[in-house]
Specification:
Blueprint lengths: L4 H4 L23 E4 L1 H7 L7 H14 L3 E5 L5 H12 L8 E7 L2 H11 L5 E8 L2 H8 L3 H20 L7 E7 L6 H15 L7 E7 L6 H14 L6 E7 L6 H10 L4 E4 L13 H9 L12 H12 L20 H16 L33 H12 L5 H18 L5 H12 L5 E10 L6 E9 L2 E9 L2 H13 L3 E11 L6 E10 L5 E7 L2 H15 L1
Parallel strand pairs: 1-2, 1-8, 2-3, 3-4, 4-5, 5-6, 6-7, 7-8
Antiparallel strand pairs: 9-10, 10-11, 12-13, 13-14
Helix pairs in contact: 3-12, 5-7, 7-8, 8-9, 9-10, 13-14, 14-15
The structure holds acetyl coenzyme *A, 3-methyl-2-oxobutanoic acid (KIV) and magnesium ion.
Cofactor: Mg(2+)
Family: Belongs to the alpha-IPM synthase/homocitrate synthase family. LeuA type 2 subfamily.
Keywords: Amino-acid biosynthesis, Branched-chain amino acid biosynthesis, Cytoplasm, Leucine biosynthesis, Magnesium, Metal-binding, Transferase
């Protein structure tokens, strides 16, 4: 038994904005994005990235279109320091990208940080100190004033070092770390003090980052406190309000979205949510959530697998198969009704002249992120006729008619149950061929037809093998198939009724083939299906009848 919750944990303290407007908000433009993969993501890794991996991550982030990238904590690690030097000295920072570095409010660390930044045209120095009641008491042993003084000592030094930089001023970012455990009025007090000490103004905005260092509440309460902060803090216009959600409760994405609705201008996060403990908020999900609402996210995810491979390589951590937008299984339907609806959705798209995406069960067109339709439908014992037919059509060009779909689905389900696993497309095709392209007692060797008189009647002569012996049959009918059926009845005593007939071409040009599907009844027997593929349509139709008879 777990200890009684009420004796051990207390509910999150809430603050209610005077007017709560965020629930009516819509996000109609992307926030400013800042990647913290190379800092928060990196500091949480079992094996932090070395220079090569950092460079791969950097290139990936730049290629995706991030304009602000936190590149490390240069005063804490020589690797971070050296990497930042490489970026600056190697000319790897595009003009439109600003690097950001993290530092504590400690003199020697701030001085070292500025050494790392020498030569950088534009940069953001990110100063933090923890402001929560618990950390003030437990970790720092200081009161509110001591906490403000700690922040201000850092700001004063950054201001002086920044003014002395020949390359130009830096942007200050200040984080009241553990904001979610900080009394909201104190967060406002310390941010106002920092902004004033820095000289923030509407033309020299300071980034005020409000981290859910630990995610401690439902996202609506985070949104409440963000809205309250934004409407309470003095000189809001002098601040870029940024959020930095972590994912301890599994609601980091929702928290970020509601925070933006509540007034945040900027979001810090990582690719696929790598980061401390349960991770930082996942910027890939945030960006594609926007995209699927018709909002250009400002980040390029047109080749999500390349981004994913880079992230997996750099972090050494796999992306979960069910991860939104990127997981191996997220564009796959195994279950019958989903497959059926997806197949119909794709078919409707083909015939409609409207680019709007409307395929059931697929919130995004896989092609938009560089994923293919190929993997969308996979077959196991939960699959139905629609999905099975879709696989036969997609991979083998067979457009099997509905009554045949119904019958074949039962065969595939039995096979999947018997194997106890997913079936490969080739196994489905083999099962189809074994069942419906059936050899046996009868084999069609050849046929010829000639017109009869001046009408539409045709006379057909067919050579067959019956139990290995040559037989020739002849008949007349309204077309070759009808003539063949008459010949079977007249010469072999096999009285066939064609109940259903479908044909289509597979491919085009000189390579084109014909597929034919029939359902026949012989005497009072239950109807059977047969199918055949051949270079010519008449041969395919006669062979399909023979297949059905052989199944008989
Ligand atoms: C929420 C976040 O992600 S914050 C970022 C955290 N990232 C990291 O810590 C990764 C890199 N950090 C490091 O390599 C090391 O912690 C260093 C180099 C920064 C500091 O190293 P050290 O001083 O040797 O060790 P340590 O981290 O244990 O020091 C903690 C001291 O800094 C103080 N401190 C912690 N944060 C801050 C801060 N933001 N501003 C000022 N002082 C701080 C602590 O109160 C403690 O003080 P004490 O020594 O008087 O008890
Ligand atoms: C340094 C800060 C912004 C941080 O990473 C956090 O609070 O989670
Ligand atoms: Mg963090």
């Amino acid at each position: 038994m777990m200890p009684a919750a009420q004796n051990k944990y207390k509910a999150y303290a809430t603050v209610r904005p005077a007017t709560r407007t965020w629930p009516d908000g819509r996000i109609d433009h992307p926030p400013m994005w800042c990647s913290v993969d190379l800092r928060d993501g990196n500091q949480a890794l079992i094996d932090p990235m070395g220079t090569d991996l950092k460079m791969r991550m950097w290139t990936t982030l730049v290629d995706m279109g991030f304009k602000e990238i936190e590149v490390g904590f240069p005063s804490a690690s020589q690797t971070d320091f050296d990497f930042i030097r490489t970026l600056i000295e190697g000319g790897h920072i595009p003009d439109e990208v600003t690097i950001q570095v993290l530092v504590q409010s400690r003199e020697e660390l701030i001085r070292r940080t500025f050494e790392a930044l020498a030569g950088a045209k534009r940069c953001i120095v990110h100063l933090y100190n923890s402001t929560s009641e618990a950390q003030r008491r437990i970790v720092f042993g200081i009161d509110r004033k001591g906490c403000v003084d700690l922040a201000l000592s850092g700001v004063a030094l950054i201001r002086d070092l920044s003014a002395a930089r020949p390359e130009g001023e830096v942007t200050l970012q200040y984080s009241p770390e553990s904001f979610t455990g900080t009394e909201p009025d104190f967060a406002v007090e310390i941010v106002e003090a920092v902004a004033e000490a820095w000289g923030a103004s509407p033309t020299r905005r300071m980034i005020c980052n409000l981290p859910a260092t630990v995610e401690m509440s439902t996202p609506n309460l985070y949104a409440d406190v963000i809205e309250w902060f934004c409407t309470t803090v003095k000189n809001r216009a002098s601040l870029i309000v940024s959020v930095h959600p972590h994912n301890d409760r599994g609601t980091g994405v929702a928290a970020a979205e509601l925070a933006v609705m509540a007034g945040a201008d900027r979001v810090e996060g990582t690719l696929f949510g790598n980061g401390e403990r349960t991770g930082n908020v996942d910027v890939v999900t945030l960006a594609l959530n926007l995209y699927t609402q018709g909002v250009d996210p400002g980040l390029d995810l047109s080749d999500i697998d390349t981004v994913r491979r880079a992230a997996e390589h750099c972090t050494g951590l796999p992306v979960h198969p069910r991860h939104p937008y990127a997981g191996d299984l997220v564009y796959t339907a195994f279950s019958g009704s989903h497959q059926d609806a997806i197949k119909k959705g794709f078919a409707a798209r083909k015939s409609a002249n409207d680019p709007t995406w409307e395929v059931p069960y697929l919130p995004i067109d896989p092609a938009d992120v560089g994923r293919s339709y190929e993997a969308v439908i996979r077959i196991n014992s939960q699959s139905g006729k629609g999905g099975i037919a879709a696989v036969l059509e997609r991979d083998h060009g067979l457009e099997i008619p509905r009554p045949l779909q119904v019958e074949f689905a039962r065969i595939v389900q039995e096979l999947a149950d018997q194997k106890g696993r997913e079936l490969e497309s080739s196994e489905i095709m083999t099962a189809f061929a074994d069942t419906y392209f059936r050899g046996g007692t009868l084999e069609l060797v050849d046929y010829s037809t000639v017109p009869v008189g001046k009408g539409v009647q045709r006379a057909l002569t067919a050579s067959l093998l019956r139990d290995g012996k040559d037989v020739v049959i002849q008949g007349v009918g309204s077309g070759p198939l009808d003539a063949f059926v008459h010949a079977l009845g007249k010469d072999l005593g096999i009285h066939v009724k064609v109940r259903d007939y479908h044909e289509h071409a597979i491919g085009g040009g000189s390579e084109a083939q014909a597929a034919c599907y029939v359902q026949i009844a012989v005497g009072g027997n239950a109807p059977t299906h047969g199918a055949a593929v051949d270079a010519g349509i008449t041969m395919a139709s006669l062979k399909a009848v023979i297949s059905a008879l052989n199944r008989g």
